[in-house]
Amino acid sequence: MRKLSLHSAGLRISAVAFLWLLLVTWSHMVLNKECSFRNRVIMGYMPVVSNLAAPLVDCATKGDDPYFEALKFSSFSEMGEAFRSGHIQAAFIIAPLALMLFDQGVPLKVVYIGNRHESTMVVRASARYDSASDLIGKTIAIPLRYSGHYLALKRYLREHGLTPSDVRIIEIPPPEMPVALAASEIDGYFVGEPFASKALQTGIGKRFLDVESIWPKFICNVLIVRRELIQAHPEWVQKLVETAIMSGFWAQDHVDEAIGILSSYWGQEPQLIQYAFSNPPNRFRFDLYTPKAEELDEILLAMRQEGLVTGKQDFKAMVEDRFAVAGGEYNKASQDLFSRLERATGFHTQAAKQ
Fold first, then answer.
1. 270-278 helix and 195-202 helix, angle to the nearest 10 degrees
2. Which of 304, 138, 291, 293 is nearest to 222 (CA)?
3. Alpha carbon distance 80, 108 (integer Å)
4. Which letter does DSSP use for residue 314 in this model?
5. What are the start-end ranges of the H helices in 160-313?
6. How far apart are CA 240 and CA 224, in angstroms?
7. First-to-last CA distance in the chain?
8. Average pLDDT for residues 150-161, to the nearest whole number?
9. Integer Cα distance of 204 and 194 in angstroms
10. Quick one: which of 7, 67, 277, 314 has the fewest CB in 10 Å?
């Protein structure tokens, strides 16, 4: 009886092992098939207008190989660290932070410029703010020291004869800025839309200045990709940039439809995004998407003046414009993205209303 028991146990063990082998083999085949047809690139972004390409690209490429997945962050600092560590392969990120990452040796390329003229400085509506001198002794928030908003604010203060000690500048993540202003923790903030519109729409803030009034063609955000992604899959990067370019023009021509999609991804009320697009109308520029070394040099010079960059990297090496140049030509002939977004519009618009 003992021999029979041992034999039966051995058969059971062999059967379990065989079934386990089959399961592992089947899983391996399924996963390989999944990977081969569901390759993806994770794009970091913030829910701001200059990053609006990220959710539209995500929406347009669902089910594609590759799929460009948009991952929302609550701060640019967090996104920068995710890119540095390789957890994300692309990022719609604030331009000076991209320069800082490159200066620290992070292997990246700037391949696209987000739409421009979408940053606004708001101040408390209940106080008098008629000129630069009214900012003396006040606390103004910016998203990050490594941001164009910080550099633009410092430029504005210099142009009006104010010193760095005249205004207290602090860092606050954009989603927290309207709350801080409402609570009188700060006197104003400088940020990308629609976070400025949040204060304007509710009446707690008033417009102090638009960034283009002090810095024409101001670059808020750039799209960076890891250098190894370009080396391994340049065709993926080409598709990403082409789709980002086309999504901007599509949003410009289909504002209501774009707002329906953006509201779903951003988790913000459609009315707020509509307000940002309408006040003033046609403010945002979607046609200046090709990265240029001389424009980044202007940012770099301002960063050096503020002591934000000290290295001697060849910053021209971080600019990779070939994808945007080719993408602009492709954009005029392709309608695929537009049809995909239009099909998705109904679902996302309905979801945003619920």
1. 90
2. 291
3. 12
4. -
5. 177-182, 195-202, 227-232, 234-253, 255-266, 270-278, 293-305
6. 11
7. 69
8. 96
9. 15
10. 314
Q: How far apart are CA 194 and CA 80, in angstroms?
A: 21
Place of tokens 């604030």: 94
Q: How many Å apart are CA 153 and CA 319, to the nearest integer?
A: 25
Among residues 144, 26, 134, the alpha carbon closest in space to that of 79 is found at 144
Cβ-Cβ contacts under 8 Å for 241 (sequence gap 6 or more): 111, 112, 223, 323, 324, 327
Q: What angle do CA 33, 265, 171 make, to 5 degrees?
A: 115
**Cross-strand pairs, 61:** none
Q: Which amino acid is at 316?
A: K
CA distances from 298 to 36, 98, 115 (A): 42, 14, 18
More reliable by pLDDT, 305 or 329: 305
Half-sphere exposure of 137 (CA within 13 A, CB side): 3
Q: Are 223 and 244 in contact (CB under 8 A)?
A: yes
Residues 302, 305, 307: CA angle, nearest 5 degrees: 110
- Rounded to whole angstroms, the Cα distance separating 345 from 260 reads 7
Q: Are strands 221-226 and 90-94 parallel, antiparallel or unpaired?
A: antiparallel
- Measure the CA–CA gap between 139 and 159, rounded to whole angstroms: 19
Distance (Å, rounded) from C-alpha 115 to C-alpha 58?
A: 17
pLDDT of residue 2 exceeding 50: no
- For 268, phi then psi, to 5°, come to -120, 155
Cβ-count burial 325-340 (b if 16+ within 10 Å, e if not): eebbeebeeeeebbeb
CA distance 256 to 349: 9
- What are phi and psi for residue 280, nearest 5 degrees? -85, 160
Q: What is the CA radius of gyration of the chain?
A: 24
- Within 8 A by CB and 6+ apart from 307, the residues are none
Does the pLDDT at position 321 exceed 80?
yes
Q: Which pLDDT tens digit goes with each residue over 262-288?
A: 999 999 999 999 999 999 999 999 999
CB atoms within 10 A of CB 299: 22
Average pLDDT, integer, range 295-304: 93
Q: Report the alpha-carbon distance of residue 296 to residue 317 in Å, rounded.
A: 11
